[in-house]
Amino acid sequence: LLYTALFANEGRAQRESIYEIQVRFKVADMPLQQALQSLERQTGFNFTFNDAYIDLQSPVSINARPSTLGDVLGSIAQQAEIKFTRINNNIHVVGTPGAPKNAAAVVEEIMPEQVKVSGTVTSSDDGEPLPGVSILIKGSSQGTTTDFNGQYSLMAPEGSILQFSYIGFTPQEIEVGNQTQLNIALQPDLEQLEEVVVIGYGAVKKSDLTGSVSSVGSEELTAYPAVGAVQALQGRAAGVQIQANNGEPGADFKVRIRGGTSINASSDPLYVIDGFVGGTLPPPEDIASIEVLKDASATAIYGSRGANGVIMVTTRKGTEGKMQVNFSSSFTSQEVINRLDLLGSRDFANYINEINPGTYDLNNIADTDWQDEIFRTGGIQNYQLSFSGGSENVKYYVSGVYYDQEGIILNSDFQRYSVTSNIDIKASEKFKLGVNLFARRTDQNGTLTQEGSGGTTNAGVVSSAFKFEPALGIFNNNGQYTLSQIGDPHDNPVAVARERLSESVNDRLQANFSAEYELLPGLVLRSTAGASINNGRTGNYISTLINAGANVGGDASINSSKSTLLLNENYLSWGTTLADRHEVQLLGGYSYQSFRDENWGARGQSFITNAVQYWDLDGSSVWQRPSSGLSEWELSSWYSRANYSFDDRFLVTFTARYDGASRFSEGNKWAFFPSGAVAWNIGNEAFMENLDVVSNMKLRAS
């Protein structure tokens, strides 16, 4: 809506006089600079001036409900002794001491010449007219479309630029100048029509897809700073629902592609990074594209694990040529919205005293806004530095990313450090090697925002800010944190944020090695071996300075885990085209994967000091029960896929996978997962050539 409003204002400013544009503007003794900025937001014009000759703090008063922009500017000009000159979307301001009282004399308007432009838009391939081509005056919402014969006509400012765009063709921009006849031939966008989409164990042309696949490019993923690739994907792929589990910095996201498919098990999709099944997503800046496999036909190649959908990630690679060094940075500010309007300290104290007289001494109360005390302006910093390049035989890409988020709640933050390295080696015409390395560390400091079931000792920061008495300060007269005087005693929100420590550190190392050899023309053997190692530690400490910790003399715990994922893939692929009309692609392979997860933890209470936090569990007087666990699983699979295309019109795909999993029940360790799909590419039929329809339209069944 914001962009629509801005472009609409710009287009209006180009074609209307300032004495035709209605505004509502009422200010009293507002500085001139602020008044002009307010008019900019309302009208879309840009005000320019030299502040060395103009008093920008000069007060102006206007009461225009409604009035024209020209009349408002005239009134401002007389009060501030300035003059306005309007040219297109710009209004220049100059100082004119002793300005005349006639408003028209101090508001000059130079309107752009309007030129009637007409012509025909055709295809450069066959010269056929293109109906429905979008034609837009750049920087405005003014435009038109071509009719059934490819013809158009519109009024445009002299010197403006026309933008021509049509699905399946490369957009063009043409400067009008003083021309009245513009005939345009659009070039077919071959890259769009032949775009390659990554699917399981290979890639196909977008026009040859038989399954449901959504593709998201790198530009969309890096449109704004994101805590990770999952958040960057939010709202970018149709049919993919992504929701934050909570609002804390570094929080995980819930991803649902095919809905909630399980009651007891996970409904999360399977992640495949550069062919590494179950890998960890790199930062958005290091991703070239993401493909989301949604239906049974697309996901069956991954067997039982594809039941919740599959997210395929292709990372950036080096290109042939000189080294390219890229650096990008961004900063985002975050604020709390919709704060609750709560009672002030005196109103609150009077209310409580009416219920229970004498609770508060009105001459000795504080005035604390607890929302102000726990909420702050948050910020996100993101920096990336990458090096890429190479020769015909060796290409490289190395990138480092630093992401830092300071939460809007006191003492909450998240940092992420990562390095991505991709190397591609062409050892010979038939033999290729690849190495993908990814290392990441995350640091997270959290605060208790969700209240637990432990009563007043588990009061959360946010809920405490809403219900804690404003008549109390952060500390009492003894320098101790205040406790609520109403109901059971519970800690004030600042104490909870400062004295409940929760720190998490996670290290991830992921490596994937690949080798590819062309045995015969069209017949390629590919083998990959990868490993992903993850180490994590979470430490918690509740200080004796707050009620929750004072009751037990301090409470500390530490939990750690280590997981290792190993993967080996081996498959053959073969493709050929027969008689220029029959295209065949076959694939078959074997996969082995194993996973091991170890976890352990300890907890203690009653410490003689708060100084060492959770790093001195042996110094606790009351030891709690320790914990440890181990889980392992293995997966062995055979898989195959056959694709057939006839004349780029009729498409058939058959996929099968035979999974053997240690987690399957006894007597049912192996399971077969087949799928099939057919598609009719109606857009390539001869009878569709003269119809105004979207190219590459398909009917699918699976």
Entry summary:
This protein is mostly beta strands. 13% of the residues lie in helices and 46% in strands.
Please give the structural blueprint:
Elements: H1 2-15, E1 22-31, H2 32-43, E2 46-49, E3 59-68, H3 69-80, E4 82-87, E5 90-95, E6 107-110, E7 114-123, E8 134-137, E9 143-145, E10 151-157, E11 161-165, E12 172-175, E13 184-186, H4 190-193, E14 196-199, E15 202-205, E16 213-217, H5 218-221, H6 229-233, E17 241-244, E18 253-256, E19 270-273, E20 276-277, E21 287-293, H7 296-299, E22 310-315, E23 321-334, H8 345-355, H9 370-374, E24 378-390, E25 394-406, E26 413-426, E27 431-445, H10 461-467, H11 493-499, E28 500-520, E29 523-542, H12 547-550, E30 555-578, E31 582-605, E32 622-623, E33 627-646, E34 650-661, E35 670-681, E36 698-701
Parallel strand pairs: 2-5, 4-6, 7-13, 19-22
Antiparallel strand pairs: 1-3, 4-5, 7-10, 8-9, 8-11, 11-12, 14-15, 16-21, 17-18, 19-20, 21-22, 23-24, 24-25, 25-26, 26-27, 27-28, 28-29, 29-30, 30-31, 31-32, 31-33, 33-34, 34-35, 35-36
Helix pairs in contact: 10-11
